[in-house]
Protein backbone atom coordinates (compact mmCIF):
# COMPACT_ATOMS: atom_id res chain seq x y z
CA UNK A 1 0.00 0.00 0.00
CA UNK A 2 2.83 2.37 0.89
CA UNK A 3 5.17 1.15 -1.83
CA UNK A 4 7.65 -0.41 0.63
CA UNK A 5 8.20 -3.67 -1.22
CA UNK A 6 11.19 -4.70 0.89
CA UNK A 7 9.12 -4.52 4.07
CA UNK A 8 6.32 -6.49 2.42
CA UNK A 9 8.77 -9.21 1.34
CA UNK A 10 10.20 -9.49 4.88
CA UNK A 11 6.74 -9.85 6.40
CA UNK A 12 5.76 -12.44 3.79
CA UNK A 13 8.98 -14.45 4.13
CA UNK A 14 8.61 -14.55 7.94
CA UNK A 15 5.10 -15.96 7.79
CA UNK A 16 5.10 -19.55 9.06
CA UNK A 17 1.64 -20.43 7.77
CA UNK A 18 0.98 -18.74 4.47
CA UNK A 19 -2.57 -18.84 3.17
CA UNK A 20 -4.27 -17.75 -0.06
CA UNK A 21 -4.71 -14.21 1.29
CA UNK A 22 -1.00 -13.76 2.03
CA UNK A 23 0.02 -15.20 -1.35
CA UNK A 24 -2.45 -12.95 -3.16
CA UNK A 25 -1.35 -9.88 -1.20
CA UNK A 26 2.29 -10.45 -2.07
CA UNK A 27 1.51 -11.06 -5.76
CA UNK A 28 -0.51 -7.83 -5.81
CA UNK A 29 2.39 -6.03 -4.13
CA UNK A 30 4.78 -7.12 -6.86
CA UNK A 31 2.31 -6.26 -9.59
CA UNK A 32 1.46 -2.84 -8.18
CA UNK A 33 5.11 -1.88 -7.75
CA UNK A 34 6.33 -2.68 -11.24
CA UNK A 35 7.58 -6.25 -10.73
CA UNK A 36 5.22 -8.42 -12.78
CA UNK A 37 7.82 -11.12 -13.48
CA UNK A 38 8.46 -11.56 -9.76
CA UNK A 39 4.71 -11.80 -9.24
CA UNK A 40 4.45 -14.68 -11.72
CA UNK A 41 7.48 -16.38 -10.16
CA UNK A 42 5.73 -16.21 -6.79
CA UNK A 43 2.55 -17.62 -8.34
CA UNK A 44 4.52 -20.62 -9.64
CA UNK A 45 6.10 -21.01 -6.20
CA UNK A 46 2.61 -21.04 -4.67
CA UNK A 47 1.58 -23.79 -7.08
CA UNK A 48 4.66 -25.81 -6.18
CA UNK A 49 3.68 -25.91 -2.49
CA UNK A 50 0.17 -27.08 -3.38
CA UNK A 51 -1.82 -23.92 -2.61
CA UNK A 52 -4.97 -23.81 -4.76
CA UNK A 53 -5.88 -20.38 -6.16
CA UNK A 54 -9.27 -18.76 -5.70
CA UNK A 55 -11.07 -16.23 -7.90
CA UNK A 56 -9.43 -13.23 -6.22
CA UNK A 57 -6.03 -14.76 -6.81
CA UNK A 58 -6.84 -15.41 -10.46
CA UNK A 59 -7.91 -11.78 -10.92
CA UNK A 60 -4.60 -10.66 -9.39
CA UNK A 61 -2.56 -12.89 -11.72
CA UNK A 62 -4.56 -11.80 -14.79
CA UNK A 63 -3.86 -8.19 -13.80
CA UNK A 64 -0.13 -8.98 -13.68
CA UNK A 65 -0.28 -10.60 -17.13
CA UNK A 66 -2.08 -7.51 -18.44
CA UNK A 67 0.78 -5.34 -17.21
CA UNK A 68 3.30 -7.53 -19.02
CA UNK A 69 1.41 -7.03 -22.30
CA UNK A 70 2.53 -10.38 -23.77
CA UNK A 71 -0.06 -12.40 -25.66
CA UNK A 72 1.77 -15.71 -25.10
CA UNK A 73 1.60 -15.29 -21.32
CA UNK A 74 -2.00 -14.12 -21.69
CA UNK A 75 -2.95 -17.33 -23.49
CA UNK A 76 -1.09 -19.39 -20.87
CA UNK A 77 -3.01 -17.87 -17.97
CA UNK A 78 -6.28 -18.19 -19.90
CA UNK A 79 -5.69 -21.93 -20.30
CA UNK A 80 -4.83 -22.15 -16.60
CA UNK A 81 -8.06 -20.34 -15.68
CA UNK A 82 -10.16 -22.80 -17.67
CA UNK A 83 -8.25 -25.80 -16.31
CA UNK A 84 -8.87 -24.66 -12.73
CA UNK A 85 -12.60 -24.20 -13.27
CA UNK A 86 -12.85 -20.40 -13.28
CA UNK A 87 -13.91 -20.13 -16.91
CA UNK A 88 -17.57 -19.51 -16.02
CA UNK A 89 -16.83 -16.58 -13.70
CA UNK A 90 -18.06 -13.33 -15.23
CA UNK A 91 -15.50 -11.28 -13.32
CA UNK A 92 -12.64 -13.49 -14.51
CA UNK A 93 -13.93 -13.46 -18.11
CA UNK A 94 -14.17 -9.65 -18.02
CA UNK A 95 -10.58 -9.45 -16.83
CA UNK A 96 -9.48 -11.88 -19.58
CA UNK A 97 -11.14 -9.75 -22.27
CA UNK A 98 -9.34 -6.68 -20.94
CA UNK A 99 -6.04 -8.57 -20.75
CA UNK A 100 -6.22 -10.00 -24.28
CA UNK A 101 -7.21 -6.60 -25.66
CA UNK A 102 -4.28 -4.85 -24.02
CA UNK A 103 -1.93 -7.61 -25.16
CA UNK A 104 -3.09 -7.05 -28.75
CA UNK A 105 -4.84 -10.42 -29.07
CA UNK A 106 -8.26 -9.22 -30.25
CA UNK A 107 -9.16 -12.62 -31.71
CA UNK A 108 -8.89 -14.18 -28.25
CA UNK A 109 -10.70 -11.25 -26.64
CA UNK A 110 -13.61 -11.63 -29.06
CA UNK A 111 -13.81 -15.40 -28.65
CA UNK A 112 -13.85 -14.99 -24.86
CA UNK A 113 -16.67 -12.45 -25.17
CA UNK A 114 -18.67 -14.61 -27.59
CA UNK A 115 -18.31 -17.64 -25.33
CA UNK A 116 -19.85 -15.93 -22.28
CA UNK A 117 -23.37 -17.04 -21.32
CA UNK A 118 -23.89 -13.97 -19.10
CA UNK A 119 -22.54 -10.48 -19.63
CA UNK A 120 -22.55 -7.32 -17.55
CA UNK A 121 -22.05 -3.69 -18.52
CA UNK A 122 -18.40 -4.16 -17.59
CA UNK A 123 -18.18 -7.00 -20.13
CA UNK A 124 -19.52 -4.82 -22.93
CA UNK A 125 -17.33 -1.90 -21.90
CA UNK A 126 -14.18 -4.04 -21.89
CA UNK A 127 -15.00 -5.45 -25.32
CA UNK A 128 -15.87 -2.10 -26.90
CA UNK A 129 -12.82 -0.45 -25.35
CA UNK A 130 -10.56 -3.18 -26.71
CA UNK A 131 -11.93 -2.75 -30.22
CA UNK A 132 -11.57 1.02 -29.95
CA UNK A 133 -8.00 0.69 -28.67
CA UNK A 134 -7.00 -1.16 -31.83
CA UNK A 135 -8.82 1.11 -34.27
CA UNK A 136 -11.81 -1.15 -34.98
CA UNK A 137 -14.34 1.66 -34.86
CA UNK A 138 -17.01 -0.03 -36.96
CA UNK A 139 -16.79 -3.21 -34.92
CA UNK A 140 -17.07 -1.15 -31.72
CA UNK A 141 -20.24 0.48 -33.09
CA UNK A 142 -21.66 -2.94 -33.89
CA UNK A 143 -21.01 -4.20 -30.37
CA UNK A 144 -22.52 -1.02 -28.97
CA UNK A 145 -25.72 -1.63 -30.96
CA UNK A 146 -25.81 -5.21 -29.69
CA UNK A 147 -25.39 -3.97 -26.13
CA UNK A 148 -28.36 -1.66 -26.47
CA UNK A 149 -30.51 -4.40 -28.02
CA UNK A 150 -29.81 -6.56 -24.99
CA UNK A 151 -31.19 -3.81 -22.75
CA UNK A 152 -28.00 -2.34 -21.28
CA UNK A 153 -28.09 1.40 -20.71
CA UNK A 154 -24.99 3.36 -21.58
CA UNK A 155 -23.21 5.47 -19.00
CA UNK A 156 -20.61 8.22 -19.17
CA UNK A 157 -17.74 5.74 -19.46
CA UNK A 158 -19.32 3.91 -22.40
CA UNK A 159 -19.97 7.21 -24.20
CA UNK A 160 -16.35 8.25 -23.66
CA UNK A 161 -15.13 4.95 -25.09
CA UNK A 162 -17.42 5.30 -28.10
CA UNK A 163 -16.21 8.84 -28.85
CA UNK A 164 -12.62 7.58 -28.66
CA UNK A 165 -13.48 4.67 -30.95
CA UNK A 166 -14.97 7.09 -33.49
CA UNK A 167 -11.91 9.34 -33.16
CA UNK A 168 -9.45 6.56 -34.00
CA UNK A 169 -11.62 5.31 -36.87
CA UNK A 170 -12.27 8.75 -38.39
CA UNK A 171 -16.02 8.51 -37.76
CA UNK A 172 -16.61 12.21 -37.11
CA UNK A 173 -20.39 12.38 -37.45
CA UNK A 174 -20.89 9.27 -35.33
CA UNK A 175 -18.67 10.76 -32.62
CA UNK A 176 -20.61 14.01 -32.67
CA UNK A 177 -23.83 12.04 -32.32
CA UNK A 178 -22.59 10.24 -29.21
CA UNK A 179 -21.53 13.52 -27.64
CA UNK A 180 -24.84 15.26 -28.39
CA UNK A 181 -26.84 12.28 -27.19
CA UNK A 182 -25.37 12.56 -23.69
CA UNK A 183 -27.44 15.61 -22.79
CA UNK A 184 -30.22 15.42 -25.37
CA UNK A 185 -31.17 11.75 -24.95
CA UNK A 186 -29.71 10.56 -21.68
CA UNK A 187 -29.54 13.62 -19.42
CA UNK A 188 -25.81 13.23 -18.78
CA UNK A 189 -23.42 16.07 -18.06
CA UNK A 190 -20.24 15.69 -20.16
CA UNK A 191 -16.97 15.44 -18.27
CA UNK A 192 -13.79 17.26 -19.23
CA UNK A 193 -12.63 13.94 -20.71
CA UNK A 194 -15.60 13.94 -23.11
CA UNK A 195 -14.74 17.44 -24.30
CA UNK A 196 -11.11 16.42 -24.70
CA UNK A 197 -12.07 13.39 -26.76
CA UNK A 198 -14.23 15.55 -29.01
CA UNK A 199 -11.32 17.91 -29.61
CA UNK A 200 -9.13 14.91 -30.42
CA UNK A 201 -11.81 13.60 -32.81
CA UNK A 202 -12.00 16.89 -34.71
CA UNK A 203 -8.24 17.41 -34.77
CA UNK A 204 -7.56 13.90 -36.09
CA UNK A 205 -10.03 14.62 -38.89
CA UNK A 206 -8.17 17.83 -39.78
CA UNK A 207 -10.99 20.07 -38.53
CA UNK A 208 -8.81 22.30 -36.37
CA UNK A 209 -10.90 25.44 -36.87
CA UNK A 210 -14.03 23.59 -35.83
CA UNK A 211 -12.10 22.17 -32.88
CA UNK A 212 -11.10 25.68 -31.80
CA UNK A 213 -14.70 26.89 -32.07
CA UNK A 214 -15.76 23.88 -30.00
CA UNK A 215 -13.21 24.72 -27.30
CA UNK A 216 -14.11 28.41 -27.21
CA UNK A 217 -17.78 27.50 -26.64
CA UNK A 218 -17.21 24.91 -23.93
CA UNK A 219 -19.18 25.50 -20.72
CA UNK A 220 -16.13 24.23 -18.80
CA UNK A 221 -12.78 25.96 -18.73
CA UNK A 222 -10.53 23.96 -21.11
CA UNK A 223 -7.61 22.26 -19.42
CA UNK A 224 -4.02 22.25 -20.64
CA UNK A 225 -4.41 18.84 -22.31
CA UNK A 226 -7.13 20.19 -24.61
CA UNK A 227 -5.06 23.25 -25.54
CA UNK A 228 -1.99 21.15 -26.26
CA UNK A 229 -4.04 18.79 -28.43
CA UNK A 230 -5.07 21.80 -30.48
CA UNK A 231 -1.52 23.14 -30.74
CA UNK A 232 -0.17 19.79 -31.90
CA UNK A 233 -2.90 19.46 -34.52
CA UNK A 234 -2.30 22.99 -35.83
CA UNK A 235 1.44 22.43 -36.01
CA UNK A 236 1.09 19.05 -37.73
CA UNK A 237 -1.23 20.56 -40.34
CA UNK A 238 0.99 23.59 -40.92
CA UNK A 239 -1.48 26.10 -39.50
CA UNK A 240 1.11 28.13 -37.64
CA UNK A 241 -1.05 31.22 -37.14
CA UNK A 242 -3.81 29.23 -35.46
CA UNK A 243 -1.25 27.37 -33.34
CA UNK A 244 0.16 30.71 -32.15
CA UNK A 245 -3.37 31.89 -31.31
CA UNK A 246 -4.01 28.77 -29.26
CA UNK A 247 -0.66 29.13 -27.49
CA UNK A 248 -1.58 32.69 -26.52
CA UNK A 249 -4.68 31.27 -24.84
CA UNK A 250 -2.56 28.69 -23.03
CA UNK A 251 -0.09 31.33 -21.85
CA UNK A 252 -2.92 33.44 -20.56
CA UNK A 253 -4.32 30.46 -18.68
CA UNK A 254 -0.93 29.27 -17.37
CA UNK A 255 1.34 32.36 -17.32
CA UNK A 256 3.96 30.66 -15.13
CA UNK A 257 4.29 27.44 -17.14
CA UNK A 258 7.62 27.53 -18.98
CA UNK A 259 6.48 24.73 -21.29
CA UNK A 260 4.04 27.04 -23.05
CA UNK A 261 6.79 29.56 -23.82
CA UNK A 262 9.06 26.80 -25.12
CA UNK A 263 6.27 25.53 -27.37
CA UNK A 264 5.66 28.97 -28.80
CA UNK A 265 9.38 29.62 -29.27
CA UNK A 266 9.77 26.29 -31.09
CA UNK A 267 6.76 27.08 -33.24
CA UNK A 268 8.29 30.33 -34.47
CA UNK A 269 11.66 28.64 -34.93
CA UNK A 270 10.02 26.01 -37.12
CA UNK A 271 9.12 28.67 -39.69
CA UNK A 272 12.33 30.65 -39.25
CA UNK A 273 10.73 33.61 -37.45
CA UNK A 274 13.76 34.28 -35.27
CA UNK A 275 12.63 37.74 -34.18
CA UNK A 276 9.50 36.22 -32.63
CA UNK A 277 11.64 33.54 -31.02
CA UNK A 278 13.69 36.24 -29.31
CA UNK A 279 10.56 38.12 -28.25
CA UNK A 280 9.10 34.98 -26.63
CA UNK A 281 12.35 34.26 -24.80
CA UNK A 282 12.58 37.85 -23.60
CA UNK A 283 8.99 37.70 -22.39
CA UNK A 284 9.79 34.49 -20.55
CA UNK A 285 12.79 35.99 -18.80
CA UNK A 286 10.83 39.08 -17.78
CA UNK A 287 8.07 37.09 -16.11
CA UNK A 288 8.17 34.79 -13.16
CA UNK A 289 7.99 31.51 -15.04
CA UNK A 290 8.15 28.25 -13.16
CA UNK A 291 10.70 25.71 -14.29
CA UNK A 292 9.32 22.31 -15.13
CA UNK A 293 9.95 19.80 -12.36
CA UNK A 294 10.03 16.01 -12.80
CA UNK A 295 6.67 14.52 -11.94
CA UNK A 296 5.97 11.51 -9.76
CA UNK A 297 2.62 9.77 -9.66
CA UNK A 298 0.97 6.69 -8.28
CA UNK A 299 -2.12 5.23 -9.92
CA UNK A 300 -4.36 3.21 -7.66
CA UNK A 301 -5.56 0.19 -9.67
CA UNK A 302 -9.32 -0.14 -10.00
CA UNK A 303 -11.32 -3.29 -9.57
CA UNK A 304 -14.04 -4.15 -12.08
CA UNK A 305 -17.29 -4.27 -10.17
CA UNK A 306 -20.37 -6.09 -11.29
TrEMBL record:
As one GO molecular function, the record gives: RNA binding
Q: What organism is the protein native to?
A: Musa troglodytarum (fe'i banana)
| Keyword Transport belongs to the record | no
Q: Which UniProt keywords apply?
A: Repeat
Q: Which GO terms describe its biological process?
A: RNA modification
Q: What is this protein called?
A: PPR repeat
Q: Which PANTHER family match?
A: PENTATRICOPEPTIDE REPEAT-CONTAINING PROTEIN (PTHR47926)
Amino acid sequence: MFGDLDAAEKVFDNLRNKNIVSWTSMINAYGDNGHPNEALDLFEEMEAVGERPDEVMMLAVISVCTKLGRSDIGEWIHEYVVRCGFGESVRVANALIDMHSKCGNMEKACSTFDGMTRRTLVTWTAMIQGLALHGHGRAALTRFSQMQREGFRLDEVVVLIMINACSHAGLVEEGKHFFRSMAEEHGMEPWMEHYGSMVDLLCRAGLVNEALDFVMNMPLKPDAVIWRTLVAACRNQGNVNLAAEVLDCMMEMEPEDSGNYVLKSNLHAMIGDWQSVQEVRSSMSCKKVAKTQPAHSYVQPTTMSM
